What does this fold into?
Amino acid sequence: MKKIFSRKKYGRRALAAGIFLWAALFAVPGTGMKARAAGDVQIAKGVFAEDIELSGLSEAEAAAKIQAFLREAGSAQITLIAGGGNKVTVTADELGLSWANPGLVKEAAVLTSGPNVIECYKAIKDLEYENKVYDIDLDFDIDEINRVLTQECTRFDQKAQDYTLSLEDGVFVVNEGVAGYALDVERSIDIVDEYLRNEWDYRSCEIKLDVENTVPRGANGELDAVGDVLGTYTTSFSTSGSSRSANVRNGCSLINGTTLYPGEEFSTLQTITPFTEANGYYLAGSYMNGQVVESFGGGICQVSTTLYNAVLLAELQVSARSSHSMIVNYVAASADAAIAESSGKDFRFVNSSDYPIYIEGRTTSDKKITFTVYGKETRDTVNRKVRYESEVLETINPTTDNITANANLGFGYITVSSAHIGYKAKLWKIVTENGTEVSREVVNSSNYKMVPRSAVVGVATDNPDAYNAIMGAIATGNVDEVKAVIAAYTPAPEQPAAQDIPPEVNAPAEGQG
It folds into this structure.
């Protein structure tokens, strides 16, 4: 029977002798120790790849055994926990499981039969006391992990919905918000990859991904402070037709009920668009380049203008405001705020107060629109007063009329569009304390272009005198001269009524207002 040497019992000298004897057996022919091809070497007893025993196997057999084990492990279910506790389950194979160090079988094979006799002998002696265990290194496909996270897990992301206010029978009601969460894909890729390569036990498991949670604004009772009137303003649309009136009411309703937190910006254009029938709008008169045109949302600028004045009284920060290109008559010059979807004209403001605000918009049966801004009043409302004054710097009156002759229309036909006076104006903010003015500043400067009266005149007639007379009147650039010629050459009973098109005083210039 072969004698087993103990390093503990015989020490270094005995061990050296054993190594010499073992080496000699390899060197002397006929000892029974035959050299083998590398692929035929059987792995020594006590060699493992983690829990997989490789004893007595060739390299190919060992590799096949490990690969079979990993194929089975590849079907293990990996459950990824995304936002809101939602779960996505995939297999390890779907995450690109692969064997990263197949060279370990070569190492295992040459552990006790390599060219270094001394090292081989030491390895054999070590195996008598302790198994040799190799780690199986794993790799996963980062692109596949990214695909699963992006396509499957981010669909559970949820945008936070802030707490909001509503005004019911004069009492503010706080409406619950919804928490938000969003997956951090890059960080979650690292978490999944690191766990599977270093901690995974080849069985089904759960991995919690990196999810950023957002607490909705208002969750800490901020809205309880809202209740004071910061600014309120009313305009009338009593001269408007049914379609324009409907547009004013619709735009007002789309803004009504807005809750705005400190630092948050409000965009009127974004809130009330699109100007479509599906969004509650009708065709109504509006001005484009000095002409009356029909457009969806005609009249909407009265909504933005009324809100603008309420915001000014609340002393909130205005971030964008445009005047109409031509004057309107429902507010003073420079107190308007035009809206135009085509050109991007918008009225925007920021809640520059330290508390949330609530915007109430309402219309009445007698065609008045009112916006009221509620919040937490921190200003001195007893001794301090704020008012706004419009100052007209220049008035520009038209000097001639624009008259177009139309040979396809009969003599006596005339349509007239009224003129618009041009203005240059400023809006002043004036603050008084105890009745004494303490500040005066310019809020905005506005230019409203002048548009002359225009007319289309029919000149088709068989009467050369009438034709020459009407053409001469047109040449004067005076609509009244044209009307006088028409009256002179047209018998009274047959005289068609001249059609004067009055300005749509509530329609915008260059937009939907």
The two ends are 109 Å apart (CA to CA). Residues 226-456 form one domain.
